[in-house]
């Protein structure tokens, strides 16, 4: 009888190799998923920042051309203003900031008017705040327009990808 050659793997060695392979695959998979989540968060941050930057730039340009402020309402944020030869408006409609061009002779805006008119400047907005200054003090609508020294604004944007957190952008 010739001796039997023991070539091959024992059951214990196969189970040990599969276990180690599974542990390594789990660690690599966790790293890949974390890397992907970081990429998605960075992409969303870039997208939100670009949207906000565009909106802030446009609002700043519009506010620089003000020749008179017709009406301001902080409860439903809007601003009706006269620009160079035309009356325009800026308003918050639920979750969007809208621009209104050549609104004619209107002196106030209803929620219905805001909802059914205007061009969307930015969406996912949870807040719009406009502040008017006369030097270091607050400018009032009853003050002469020549005493208006600055208009500041803040946009608060919802970040759905980060669990409903918000980010505030200001000029």
Write out key terms for the chains shown.
171 residues; alpha+beta; 9 strands
Structure description:
The protein has 171 residues and is α+β, with helices and mostly antiparallel strands. The model has no long low-confidence stretch (mean pLDDT 89). The strands form two sheets. A five-stranded antiparallel sheet has the order 1-2-3-4-5. The protein contains two helices and nine strands; from the N terminus they run H-E-E-E-E-H-E-E-E-E-E. The longest helix is centred in the first third of the chain and has 54 residues, at 11-64.
Question: Topology, please?
Answer:
Elements: H1 11-64, E1 68-73, E2 78-82, E3 87-93, E4 96-100, H2 111-116, E5 119-122, E6 125-134, E7 137-138, E8 150-159, E9 165-170
Antiparallel strand pairs: 1-2, 2-3, 3-4, 4-5, 6-7, 6-8, 8-9
């Amino acid at each position: 009888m010739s001796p039997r050659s023991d070539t091959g793997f024992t059951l214990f060695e196969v189970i040990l190799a599969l276990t180690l392979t599974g542990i390594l695959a789990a660690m690599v998979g966790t790293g890949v998923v974390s890397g992907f989540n970081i990429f998605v968060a960075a992409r969303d941050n870039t997208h939100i920042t670009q949207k906000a930057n565009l909106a802030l730039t446009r609002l700043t340009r519009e506010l620089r051309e003000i020749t008179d402020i017709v009406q301001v309402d902080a409860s439903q944020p809007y601003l009706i203003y006269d620009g160079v030869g035309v009356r325009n408006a800026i308003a918050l409609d639920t979750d969007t900031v809208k621009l209104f061009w050549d609104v004619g002779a209107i002196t106030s805006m209803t929620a219905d008017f805001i909802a059914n008119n205007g061009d969307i400047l930015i969406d996912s907005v949870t807040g719009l705040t406009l502040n008017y200054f006369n030097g270091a003090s607050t400018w009032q609508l009853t003050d002469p327009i020549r005493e208006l020294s600055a208009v500041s604004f803040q946009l608060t944007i919802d970040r759905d990808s980060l669990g409903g957190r918000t980010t505030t952008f200001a000029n």
